[in-house]
Amino acid sequence: MQLQIDNLDGAGARDYTAAIDSARLPQVVRKLNQAAQMKVSLTATSPGFVAPASGARITLNKANGQFIFTGYLTAAPELDFVGWGERGAIYRYNLQAASDEVLLERKRLPQLAPFVERSAGSALRQLTEDLMPGVFDTSGVQDGDALAEYAPDPQKSWAQQATEIGIEGRASYRVMDGAMSFAPVGTASWALNETDVMFEPEGLKVQPSDGLINDVTVIGEVEPQDYVKDYFVGDGLTLKFYLSQTPFTKSSHTVFDEEYAGAALDATRWTVSDPSAAVSVSGGKLQMAGGTGADGGTTVEFVEKVEMGAAVVLQHGNVTFSAPSSAVLGGLYAGAVSIGGCLAGFEVTPNGTESNIQALVNGLAAGTPMTTTSGHQYVLSTRLYSEEIYRRQQTFHSSAHPAGSGRGGAEVAANVRVILEVHEIDPENPPTQVAPSTVLYDGVISGAPDFCTYALVNAANLQCAIAFTRFIEAPDTEVRSALPDQQYRTRLVGALSDGAECNIVSGPALDFFTAYVPAPNEAIEVRYRGQGRALARVTDPASMAAQAHGSDDGVRSALRHVKLPAARTAMDCENAALAVMDDAAGTAWTGEYAVWSDFLPGGAADIFPGDALQVSAGSRGAAFTAIAREVDVTVKELAAEHSRYTIRFADDAATPLGFEFEAAKIASLPDVTPQINTQVGSLFLDSLEAAEVTQVTSTTISVDAGTTAPSGGGFEVRWSDAGWGMENDRNLAGRFATEAFTIPRLSRTQTFYVRQYDGSVPPKYSRYSASLHVDYPLS
């Protein structure tokens, strides 16, 4: 073996093999999804010995070029006095090193937008490239499954985030000689069989334990639950209207606020196609001076996709036009950037010496265009309100459902309301700063894509300056109102300076700004999702029956509070519970195997954490597949290249690889109805997202459920969100077999809940309620 160290002093790598202390030969510790560590001691016996420096590059390899370790010294050598020699005192230099990715640990991650619709491997590559562009070879990073969302955190190290990505993808990474690999655990598999002639029986230790679980309760995050609609009526004076529930809010924060302060576009935020050199940054603005003249030729695209869920506000700029232009600004595209494929955006076309701004929806111009005025500024905003908060289920893995076939991960269909608005500002007229925006389009796009590409610019010939671009995940609340005998219009929620008319404040309450007080008899409708704890309980009756003996009913229960991957909804909790049960059907195995490097299982040249071991030891009743969690390599003979390996392994029943659990407790654990494992995914009917109040009188409330009644079933209405089922009538307002029905009105303020049910025995119900709240005068 050869030990080389480059002290980064310009002399290149030096061979330190002869200086290795024979009493302290190299020892390498490899752990799953952690940096490998190496310890080795040197003795300064030659006159030309150069003491290694902190940060020096160190490698340990065999004569055939196979690396055992590559990395960097993480500290200055620790010196031990060992005696006197002809030239004076002799010291032992104790070295500690970490593998190559330690370079990434020394860097602070920039502020990045959440990764959405990215694979686990893509997320890892992006984190690596953003920290140290071009330094590591990431060609060995496999994609793996798509992550529902991963939010990079500058307060965490690269290694912490790589570990999290590894858990969510049930994959492992390692870095050797500057090359990074990332693959599903078990990609490399080795047979550890006691009948092998090279098997070392004294080196194998296995420990079985009871890993059976057939009743799993999973606790997830706070989730969106009821589909709430609150109805109010204006009186010309009231500005504040109190909501019936606290709205669920996904995050409500600014994803980015780009003010173009540098000399070029931020490569961690934007990708640019600019063959005609029309794009530049100067004076704190994005400057556009032309284009290719072709659709999709000159583009400025956001590096991440936009999830079409919850509430999103995209402000595409203060745009100041300097000449007639032809472009699409702020476009959302289901696929490649093109006018025909634009789901929603602002189309700019020449109009004499000015330009027209018009809504572009599903590739076609919509509504009335607005003509620009020289010197005016135009704040273009797109507001999205989705029926669903999350547009992709979380994916959960087990040994039976590894990367590539995880549980969950399905796309979630939803309709999305799109509002395209323009706030025109005349710098010479200060009141225009808070003047209302002009709505160019307000409509619902049915079956909207789950994720879209966002292109700030798609320019054929664009002459303008863009002062800022902002991406906000807004309060997930949609407000609409209608004057008597008129159509409903969307009331813009947000800051007054952004042209909004109202905001959601603590209380919870809807608060209109004074300039936009609702008129007498103006009907107000507020739509949002309620909130509650995501929970699921899944059972396996067949397993219970098999385990039942005498007074033992066979139930083996467990409660898991899932930290990673995040169980964001009850459906996620159900899939997580199924994944837990996949690996909890019997015996759990842990163990270790100590063996010489010459006799590694399956004839392997080397073994790393994440490799699978097919353990077959009939004399010990052991036949299972485990994953190596830690591999310790201790060099015993340098010249002969003999090392002693200790491989510590476990199966997923002992330590799940696709989860991180936490011990946190919630204040009160609500009742949760158990589901049989074979029922998951088929137990609930669709929730009544489209249910609404159609008329309110002093004595009745008319309701449209938004869909026809299920065969043999109907719509159950209750005064509180509890007691669902045919056998409970304590809070029942009625059951109806028609889409439209009427319930009695009992007070000025009244809330009721609706779910649909079918003719099954017992009947299936909606998972969540439609909550309808009316606050109207009785007269």
Q: What does the model show?
A:
- By secondary structure, the protein is mainly beta.
- It folds into five domains: 2-99; 103-184, Phage tail protein beta-alpha-beta fold; 189-211 and 586-650, Elongation Factor Tu (Ef-tu), domain 3; 250-474, Jelly Rolls; 692-775, Sandwich (Immunoglobulin-like), CATH 2.60.40.10.
- It contains five helices and 54 strands.
- The protein has a 16-stranded antiparallel beta sheet that branches. Strands 1, 2, 3, 4, 5, 6, 7, 8, 14, 15, 42, 43, 44 and 45 form a 14-stranded mixed beta sheet that branches.
- Helix 2 runs antiparallel to helix 3 (158-169).
- It is flat.
Question: Key terms for this structure?
Answer:
16-stranded antiparallel beta sheet, 5 domains, Elongation Factor Tu (Ef-tu), domain 3, single chain, mainly beta, 6% helix, Phage tail protein beta-alpha-beta fold
**Count of helices?**
5
Mean pLDDT: 95
For the sheet with most strands, the description reads: 16 strands, antiparallel
Low-confidence stretches: none
CA-atom Rg in angstroms: 32 Å
CATH architecture descriptor of the largest domain:
Sandwich
CATH topology of the largest domain: Jelly Rolls
SSE-based structural type: mainly beta
What fraction, in percent, of the residue positions are helical?
under 10%
Could you name the CATH class of the largest domain? Mainly Beta
Question: What fraction of the residues are assigned to beta strands by DSSP?
Answer: over 45%
* End-to-end distance: 93 Å
* Total domain count: 5
The shape, in one word, is: flat
Total number of β-strand segments?
Answer: 54
